[in-house]
Amino acid sequence: MLRNNVSVLYDSNILGRKNSAEDVLWTYSPTLEFRRNGGFVKMDAELGGEFGVFHNHGEYDYQNFRSRVDLTFPNDEGYPFEARLSGSFGQISDLDRFLGERTESELSTITAELRYDFTERWALSMGLGWSDTTYRGGSGESQQRYVDQSLMRAES
Q: Which residues touch 93 (CB under 8 Å, ≥6 apart)?
């Protein structure tokens, strides 16, 4: 299935600074979704992007990519256990009001979860996740990578 979103936004301060310029941002976000609910493995996936165009300040135009996949095994409520594996990657172009400039970031995640139902009321679940975020600020050749963050989590 194809999902489309179009929006228009007036921004009176596109850089988040005192006496910054104003502009109109046009965005188009197409997303292709795929769902498979039959068989032994359930799959839910999407692939898309966002294209932003500034009316007067083309130097801030952007193209963001995003993707996500979720797999669930087994795809049957008759089993007392469930395993889920998820992964995603996305790009974000946004205004950072603290820095007073437009920034770009990339976020990657992987998550694995296991669940076992002892009874209808009692279950044990465990999860392990990893995420990595990279932020970039500035524009053109002065663009710099200023934060790289990796997180691991385990829970039960």
A: 52, 62, 64, 102, 103, 104
